Amino acid sequence: MKSKYLIFDSGPLINFSMNGVLHLLDKLKKEFRGEFVITKEVKKEIIERPINIKRFKLGALQLKNLFEKGVIKHAPINNEQVNELRKIRNKLMEIANTTFEAKNRKLHLIDKGEAAALALSRILNNAPIVIDERTTRMLVENPENLRKLFEKKLHTKVRTNKKNYKFFKDFKIIRSTELIYIAYKKRLFNLKYPETYEAMLYGMKYKGCSVSEKEIDEMKRL
Predict the structure, then answer these.
(1) Is the dihedral of CA 152, 153, 159, 163 positive or negative?
(2) Phi, psi of 165 (to 5 degrees)
C-alpha cells in the first residue's frame, strides 16, 4: 500500500498559527491517515528564520513543536530524489517566471519555496499541495485568468507563452479554508458558538488565504 502525502507550503502553516488553530492539524492528520510533509525551504521560512525574530518567534516555536512531534515532517526522500527535486524545482521556476511578459519584462510568478513544493508533488506521485497564495494556485488552475488579472493590475497588455501552461495543469491544490471546511464536517472543533465556523473561514482569508466571500458563502451552505 502506497503512503499518502499532503504537502504544505509555508503560507497555510503560518495562517493556522496566526489564527491559533494549529491543534487542528494534528486532528486533520489522523483523519487523513497519511503524512503531512514540508520541504527544507518551507522549514526555513516557518521555523529557522522567524525563530530569531522577536515579532515572529512565538509562531515559529509553535510550529517547531509541531515539527518535533511529527505532525509535520520532511518528506522521506533519498539523496537521488533530493537531487531530482532540485532539478524539477529549478525548471519549474524558470518556466513559470518566463510565462508572462509585460512592457518587455518577464513577470515573476513563483519563488523557490512554491517551486520546491510543486517539485515535491512530482516526486511523490502528484500528491496534493496546500497553498494559500493566489498566483501559484491560479497558474495551476486557470493561467488565462491569471494573465487577465495581471493585465487589470498592471493596466497593460500581458503576453503569454501558452506552451508553458501544460507544465502546471496536473497539480492538485487545496487551501487553508478547505482544511477548515473538512475539520468542520468531521466535527474536529467545538462549535460552542454557531458563528465559529464562519469566523475561522474569514480568519484564514484575512491572514493570507486567497478566497472570495462568495466561496466562503458556498462553504457555509455545503
Answers:
(1) negative
(2) -60, -35
Q: What angle do CA 167, 169, 172 make, to 5 degrees?
A: 120
* pTM exceeding the 0.90 threshold for the entire prediction: yes
3-state SS, residue 72: strand
Least confident of 70-79, 109-118, 187-196: 187-196
127 secondary structure, DSSP code: -
Rounded to the nearest 10 degrees, the angle between the axes of helix 79-96 and helix 112-123 is 130
Helical H segments across the chain, by residue range: 10-18, 23-32, 40-43, 57-68, 79-96, 112-123, 134-141, 143-154, 176-185, 196-206, 213-221
Beta strands 5-8 and 129-130, pairing class: parallel
Compute the distance between CA of residue 21 and CA of residue 190 in angstroms, rounded to an integer: 12
Is residue 70 within 8 A of residue 20, CB to CB? The reply is no
Instruction: Judge residue 147's burial from the number of C-beta atoms within 10 Å of its C-beta, 0-12 exposed, 13-18 middle, 19 or more buried.
Output: buried
* Count of domains forming the chain: 1
CA separation for the pair 210, 169 (Å, rounded): 19
Percent of the chain with pLDDT over 70: 99
Q: Which domain holds residue 41?
A: 5-221
CATH of the domain at 43: 3.40.50.1010
Three cell numbers, residue 222 = 455545503
Among 133, 147, 145, residue whose Cα is nearest residue 101: 147
